[in-house]
Amino acid sequence: MFCRFELTAGSVVATFARTLTLIICLAAVGSPVSNNKHSVLVIVGGTGDLAEKYLWQSVFDVYLSIVENRHDESNWSPTPVNHTIDFYAAGRSQQDKGSVILNKILTTAVKCDVDSERQCLKTLTEFIDKVTYITLLEDEDYALVCSELTRKFVNFPASTTRELILFVAIPPDAYEAVLAKFHKHCSALRSHNVSVRLAVEKPFGLDKASAETMSNKMLSYFEEEDIYRVDHYLGKSVAKAILPFRHLNPNFEKNLNKDFVEKVEIFIKETVGVEDRLEVYNTMGVLRDIHQNHLTQLLILVSMDLPSDMNNTVEVHQNKERLLKQIEPVTRHNSLFGQYKTYAGNAKDLESNNTGNSPTFAASVVKINSPRWRSVPFLLVSGKQLDVRESFIRIVFKDNYVCVSHCAHKNLEEKGKNAKQIIFHIGHGSLHRPSILVSKSFEKAHCPEHFKESLDVNSLSTHAVYGDSLKQFYVCTVLKDIPAYVSIFADILANRQEHFVSTTQLLLSWQMWDYITSAPKKIRIYEHSDPQGHLNFIVKESQLEFAKDIGPERDGDNERVVSRKSDEHKFMQTAATFLGQKLVTSHTDHLAFLLARDIDKAAGADIQSKGSFHIAFSGGVSVQKIFQVLAHSFANLHWQSIHVWQVDERCVPHQDERSNFQMLDRELLRFVDIPYSNIHAMPVYTGGRLCDPELGGAHAYAESLRHIVPNSQLDFIVLGLGTDGHTASLFPMSADLHVDSNTFVITTEDGPRGTERRMTMTLPLINRAKRVTIFVTGSQKQEIVSKLETDTLQSVEHYPILGVNPVNGTLCWYIDYSAYTED
Ligand SMILES: O=C1O[C@H](COP(=O)(O)O)[C@@H](O)[C@H](O)[C@H]1O
């Protein structure tokens, strides 16, 4: 039987968490139910930058509200709970030195409100005394601290709820050692009924692979429900009010879909530059710093299906994850990049080899492939050194109003009534307070809890906002703007995990941004605050274009190399090889995505440099996956400039299910906007005859390749691998392996087990290509993969795939886990 009770801690911090609902389920019948709780909060990195700038002030605000049990205009209710908290700042310095630094931070950086009562100053002094510095460096330090904590915890009666929160605010390359040592020496706390939770600050990886590695490490020490990944935007007052607002206003909610919404703009604009964070920022750029986390989380809040219970963590997470699965990965074609003028010069001064190619501005259109949102562009925009500091979500509704009578007499006021938008004004900018604005052409909105209807709009701003006069909006303003970190600490203490990022959400959001973060980029340089509006852009369906052409953009191609390098030491990724060539491994679906992404990248580069891209595909079940990914996630490739060729084909008509072309057409070509003249199907069936040598189909195909593609050099070839080591339709011991000209042939023998003959590309033609890839998936390929590495009979005769060896091009293997790893 589970018992349950709820406890409400009223406090300043609980503005949005207002009811800090702590649900404690005790597994044993008759377990004592307690109103007492003791928490220990350890901030690792407690003397660091973030701690100094935000964390200790926020922790103090939470503490103050708990101590004072304060009632105020926001109607926070008092807590019935006796909640005691001990605070520790952990660092690597020795005790005496660390204590001095901590004391300096606490006495200078933590303050009471100017208008706060004298009581606050007294509480602050108490608080400063309560925060203890601890050294966490060697194993012995952890052992000592944890045995001391255990001793203190067991002094509390068994009925007291006990918890230890490890708040990690240090760079990710230092996490691992901390978590491992903590686990080794502090896990025993759990056997004393202490629940141990981890709160952690971004960055959560630099790409999906490193995020996955890092998450797996965390999950080997903590349960998923004990991990609180902090995204401070989820602590901002308006962000927290989005779901409640949607819940309270069903009439708006029912319009939040593609039938009514024209576009959604999500902006985080900053006026500051990168300043003293250059070293870190340069490995991230704006996409990793803002888009992958803050902007994506805001996008989720506004577009996810509304949970029936917003306090139900499981349901909230499920809905967020479902939405994320429907988002298409962002590609180069739907993104624009900029960099403020002085950035590169500053970055070049760094000691590392950074070339300063990280964008400081990016705009991307995100598409949600769901019945609710399909075709609605979500514009995610952020930049540094822009004209104003402002963050908002602006939902613009379709304007279906048609004026028939007296249209010319409509005054501005009337016209404004037709504009339809809902704006979640998260902060700064032209409004003095975080607010929610709803166009008056809608019915009046209900303001969510902790917001009030603002009738005196002049006190909010004297300017026009979001293209309209403020008078044309109903406005809900926040009663008290609680700083994001205050809200975050309150949520951690109240176990409200729905305001944090789950592992699944993290990995899905990386999947969205993974490609574009490392893809080559054209970067437009802009002046501080962009006085000429060079960053203004136009949305054309799902493509973006800068509105003004200002000549060539800078090429940011080196970015990948730069960030890779720094990833390497941060996450210790090693480059993999197979048979001496580059190897990429992953789960099948992700592997197909990675190959499709590499095709996209190669196509982008070639189209830009020479105007066209020629790719040849093999047939086979594995390759089908790539077609599907290309069709559904990369449909924005510049198909007008892409030519598709075939590596091989069975001698069957295209209507035959065994036809490779049929699959190519069914799974890819019909979904993309490729000109008919760019599709080069193998002529296996001519004049009612199949692969008749007299018709010279193979020769004709080679000729058309020669005419269309300079030097018959294909830009990209996707090959498969048979369980017998064949590739294309070149089988072991076949005479076709010895053809030495750049041509296609009709195979000399039937296919395996007496199947029909084929037309195939020969090895010399394959080896002429610029990039050759071999895509291998499924456990049935395990044996051949391992034979290729171990068999002493390494001849092309036995294993035709070994004949693939581009003369001037590159070769890359893509082998999925089930083919690469032994069961
Ligand atoms: O996490 C980050 O956010 C800040 C912007 O946050 P805000 O609350 O001031 O809007 C950004 O400056 C920083 O680069 C980024 O890492």
UniProtKB/TrEMBL annotation:
GO CC term, one of those recorded: endoplasmic reticulum
Annotated keywords: Carbohydrate metabolism, Glucose metabolism, NADP
Positions of the Glucose-6-phosphate dehydrogenase NAD-binding domain: 42-238
Pathway(s) served: Carbohydrate degradation; pentose phosphate pathway
Full protein name: 6-phosphogluconolactonase
Record domain Glucose-6-phosphate dehydrogenase C-terminal: where: 244-528
Matches recorded under Pfam families: G6PD_C, G6PD_N, Glucosamine_iso
GO molecular function: 6-phosphogluconolactonase activity; glucose-6-phosphate dehydrogenase activity; NADP binding
Source organism of the structure: Candidula unifasciata
Biological-process GO terms, alphabetical: glucose metabolic process; pentose-phosphate shunt, oxidative branch
